[in-house]
Specification:
The protein is of the alpha/beta class and about 500 residues long. The chain has eleven helices and 18 strands. The strands form four sheets. The protein has a six-stranded mixed beta sheet, with helices on both faces. The chain has a five-stranded mixed beta sheet with strand order 3-1-8-5-6, with no helix packed on it. About 5% of the residues have low confidence.
Length: about 500
């Protein structure tokens, strides 16, 4: 059963916005007192927060599907819908956030860092918010927009100052336990460590973290063993400590050959652009297991050759703790030098936020070829959001959408792109709304049966007055009297008799 997970794919669905309400206020002596439909509530965002108390992505591995609540719908009497609470997901410090295509979105390197990875839908305006001096009683409201629905990828890269690298069973986990209060799993067989172990070391006034990176063998950078899975945890480390086994029982192995193989794997591993290659970072060598007589003898034998290569060498024993104190202070010195280098480094380029140009349309019209002629696709945040907010069963809402698009300049751009009467216009990408464009109309507002800004419910009804009903009654009585007089004239003329019967 897995206890450590450092990469996972999340399937997210942010909450949708609530629909606006269409309502007309009714009071005693004021049956139609004006629109009072409330605005829909916003959906809940999905937010990632870097939490120092979380060390693995195991929780997301077991339940990768996460969704937030929808916003409440608007109601009458100016009551707005409830805004949904955001869904907060805690991730370890050092989590790299990518989209489904692998594009980096955020690097959660600081405790408490927050990133909105799934934006919720926006609530639609009610008819009370849409009313103005020209549209006194809107008979429509805006719909809530949809929230984000898709996948994101989380990849954990351990944030530590020093990385312990070496062959399996070289004593890296034992060194972490000896230098810090961490209690990693320790056993006498290879690949005991299946996930990085972190420990905090206090050396004088310096406090730093060390990480045991497991599974480095020959070919690790090419995917052999567990090395490729965990080499990325070395990327964020300031310094490297090579832990070499001086008491190995495997034939053909010695500290020098082990170091050469590990250096080759570190040199072959590609780091992200802008980072120092692993092989060029500050490095120390620790010759472990000198508590064994043969191990101390071998350590004394190879120390001169390692120092000739330019390494500072420390002979240590994680069992007797011999040589650990000088090693911890030497590592602290490297960490302090790395931290000071970050302080002295030239400042990063300033991020300049520029406002949108006044002549920027905020949308684009793309011409696409089709079997039935050109298709004109309108892309932009505003047009696509407005289409989502439109109730296409309401003619007045369609007219309102047409007015908004006309004011934005969509129709002018369609003319410039060569659109003609009957051209197919699509707003949005894959599931966009398709229109048959009619350029002779200034907008589709002409489709509205009632004047713009008027609600038929607020107009005077067609009930007859008393005089009208009296006149209609007299007209019916006169018509009946005329019909009776006509029958009398026909009888006097002998056209029919009351006792006449048909004879054959």
């Amino acid at each position: 059963m897995a206890t450590f997970v450092d990469h996972v794919t999340l399937h997210l669905r942010a909450g949708n916005g609530g629909n606006g309400c269409v309502s007309v206020k009714r009071e005693k002596f004021k049956p139609l007192a004006g629109p009072d439909g409330g605005t829909g509530g916003n959906g809940g965002d999905i937010v990632l927060v870097a939490d120092p108390g979380v060390t693995t992505l195991l929780g997301f591995h077991r339940s990768p599907h996460r969704r937030s609540d929808n916003g409440g719908p608007g109601m009458g009497d100016h009551r707005s819908g409830t805004n949904a609470d955001e869904l907060v997901l805690s991730v370890p410090i050092g989590t790299l956030v990518k989209d489904a295509d692998g594009t980096e979105l955020a690097d959660m390197t600081d405790a408490g860092m927050r990133v909105v990875v799934a934006e919720a839908g926006q609530g639609g305006l009610g008819n009370a918010a849409l009313s103005n001096t020209k549209r006194k009683a809107p008979g429509f409201a805006l719909l809530g927009t949809l929230g984000f629905e898709g996948d994101i990828r989380l990849e954990l890269k351990v944030v530590a100052d020093v990385a312990l690298v070496g062959y399996p069973s070289a004593g890296k986990s034992s060194l972490v336990a000896a230098l810090s209060a961490a209690k990693p799993k320790i056993a006498d067989y290879p690949f005991t460590t299946l996930h990085p172990n972190l420990g905090v070391v206090q050396a004088g006034e310096t406090r730093y973290t060390i990480a045991d990176v497991p599974g480095l063998i020959e070919g690790a950078s090419e995917g052999k063993g567990l090395g490729l899975e965990f080499l990325r945890h070395v990327e964020r480390c300031t310094a490297l400590l090579h832990v070499l086994d001086c008491a190995t029982l495997e034939p053909g192995r010695d500290p020098i050959s082990d170091l050469d193989i590990i250096l080759a794997e570190l040199a072959a591993y590609p780091v992200p652009e802008g980072q120092i290659p692993l092989i060029e970072r500050p490095q120390l060598v620790a010759l472990n297991k000198i508590d064994v007589p043969e191990g101390r003898e071998l350590a004394d034998f190879v120390t001169a050759e390692l120092e000739a290569r330019g390494y500072r060498v420390f002979e240590i024993s994680t069992v007797s703790h011999e040589g650990l104190k000088p090693l911890s202070f030497a590592l602290a010195q490297l960490v302090e030098e790395g931290r000071q280098a970050l302080i002295d480094a030239p400042p990063k380029p300033r991020l300049v936020m520029r406002p949108r140009a006044v002549d920027e349309a905020g949308f684009t019209v793309r011409v696409e070829g089709g079997s039935g002629g050109n298709i004109y696709r309108v892309l932009g945040t505003k047009p696509e959001r407005w289409v989502q907010q439109t109730d296409f069963t309401n003619e007045e809402a369609i007219g309102f959408l047409a007015d908004r698009l006309a004011k934005l300049g969509v129709e002018d751009q369609l003319f410039k792109k060569g659109a003609q009467a009957g051209s197919t216009v699509i707003i949005g990408l894959d599931n966009g709304v398709v229109f048959d464009w009619e350029p002779t109309m200034t907008s589709t507002a002409e489709l509205v049966t009632a004047p713009r800004g008027l609600d038929p419910r607020l107009l005077k009804d067609g009930r007859r007055t008393s005089n009208q009903r009296r006149e209609e009654y007299f007209e019916r009585m006169d018509a009946k009297a005329e019909a009776r007089a006509e029958l009398v004239r026909e009888k006097e003329a002998g056209l029919w008799r009351e006792d006449s019967t048909d004879e054959e």
